[in-house]
Specification:
The protein has 267 residues and is α/β, with parallel strands linked by helices. It is 34% helix and 15% strand. The N and C termini lie far apart (39 Å).
Length: 267
């Protein structure tokens, strides 16, 4: 069996955030899909496929000075041969900011999108870049004019902590508050398809992230971000290769691979 290759963002401080039990769970996750060949492929197989890669457009707001770590993690995975995609562009609402710097540093087309954020302009942006798939990675504007079958978002908590105004550090403050009141025991990284309502599309990935009594919102935010970077490219690859899909209308139409263990737990 070929060696399992990991991207560079697995090394160092981000990986040290994981408890031993969670490390084992992640390795089992990769082993399952390497053996079954149902989601994550080995790098030697990817090298043979040079054309017709899914065209992925990433929307990431960032800030005027920084941001874009999730976008950068996707780019790293693509360069390492783990994300089998053609990242055709990065879109940000900030003309000069972290997203632009990271895109230009990696030779990826950047588009400043100041609005208006309506159907016509979203359609134009997506068509201009030729995006077949749209990944929202820290995009803070409401989406319009997209295909719900091919548009998906990563969220730094369970979707119960979602909706208008729930982004960035605001989410983690709400999570810490709920934890301190005894309502929850942990948080999570979630990925879901995008629908007309904020954070209401069908969830196809949820992975728990521990909370500790000494956590501040900032500490928790950094821990969750580490888990986002570990998993986002893996699940993105499965979506754009149609291992995970839905019909864009009925959440019950959601399809995942056999043996997939990362759907939200139901009561």
């Amino acid at each position: 069996m070929a060696e399992l290759l990991l991207p560079k963002q697995w090394a160092g401080v981000r990986f040290s955030l994981l408890a031993q039990k969670q490390k084992i769970a992640i390795w089992r996750f990769f082993a399952l899909y390497d053996i079954k060949k149902s989601g994550v492929f080995l790098q030697e197989e990817r090298m043979e496929k040079k054309e017709n890669k899914p065209r992925l457009l990433v929307f990431a707001s960032g800030t005027k000075k920084e941001g874009g770590s999730g976008f950068e993690a996707l780019v790293d995975a693509q360069k390492n041969g783990m994300l089998d995609a053609n990242i055709v562009g990065a879109v940000s609402s900030h003309r000069f900011g972290g997203i632009r710097r990271k895109a230009e540093a990696n030779g990826i087309r950047f588009l400043w999108f100041p609005g208006p954020y309506d159907v016509r302009n979203y359609n134009y942006v997506i068509r201009k870049h030729g995006g077949e798939w749209v990944a929202l990675s820290g995009w803070l504007k409401k989406m319009e004019g997209y295909d719900p079958r091919t548009t998906f978002n990563i969220h730094p908590a369970r979707l119960a902590f979602g909706g208008r105004g729930m982004y960035g550090i605001h989410i983690h403050r709400a999570v810490i508050d709920a934890y301190q009141k005894g309502y929850i025991k942990d948080t999570a990284v979630s990925m879901h398809f995008v629908t007309d309502e904020y954070d209401k599309g069908p969830v196809f990935f949820e992975y728990p992230v521990p909370i500790y009594p000494t956590d501040t919102p900032k500490i928790l935010q950094e821990r969750v971000k580490g888990f986002e970077h570990l998993f986002q490219w893996v699940i993105t690859d499965m979506v754009i290769h149609k291992k995970i899909s839905w019909d864009g209308k009925d959440p019950k139409s959601l399809i995942v691979p056999e043996g997939y263990r990362f759907l939200p737990k139901t009561a």
